Amino acid sequence: xxxxxxxxxxxxxxxxxxxxxxxxxxxxxxGNTLNCILTVYRNENVVGFFKGMSFPLASIAVYSSxxxxxxxxxxxxxxxxxxxxxxxxxxxxxxIVASMVAGxxxxxxxxxxxxxxIRLQMQTQPFIKANINLKHMGxxxxxxxxxxxxxxxxxxxxxxxxxxxxxxxxxxxxxxGYCLYFIPYTVLCGWITPEGCxxxxxxxxxxxxxxxxxxxxGTATPMDVVKSRLQADGVYLNKYxxxxxxxxxxxxxxxxxxxxxxxxxxxxxxxxxxxAMFLGYELxxxxxxGDQAETNP
Length: 297
Prior knowledge:
single chain, globular, mainly alpha, Mitochondrial carrier fold, about 0% strand
């Protein structure tokens, strides 16, 4: 653990549900993951799995850069204040604080992005019929025409606060989620990397990053379900009053199993996604350090 904590890790616990995963967690009427996939494909073809992804894709670079930077700079600031050297090896407590700060900031940026994505994914007719009886309202068309229309509609109807619907649940997901992302990665890198090596090898980064991603996404699934339901709520009516009410209603209607809905998809998807993310980060950091060394020997 000591050797692992000596390595400065920075990445992003950045998630993005496809249409199937969001509907599995926020909707009802889907028996399991396979049934959800088949239902989405049957009703909307392959396009249904990518609904609402244009907005996250357009903002992912900014979101990731800010989150990575917050974690790294917070860690360096703590090291400077505690040890008088910003490059001092961080302690476990330093990593925890830096991870928590990154989690809080991620909600400020990622909350609206997730909201728009989920609203666009959850406005389909099969979801409506499975969850709430709105036949008398004559709803047959999507509420939102696209990301921009979705943003303007939410701001007009709910104000700025509406853009942060589900922020409480997202905080409860991301703050511990980032801790279970950065810390396992740092520790695992220390265990895998041989003594005497200055930095972990690409294979070490890939394995450690993948395992960290699977751990963080797997353990975050219960609150991810609550967050998705709160953000999907409000497309046509408001069903939940808050985090506690959402947990209570979900439990009473579907039991404890609802809070692990999608855990397999989250864990499996988290491995390659996080492995690639950490590997890209570490390789970029090495390249930047190399350029700096050549410029300022």
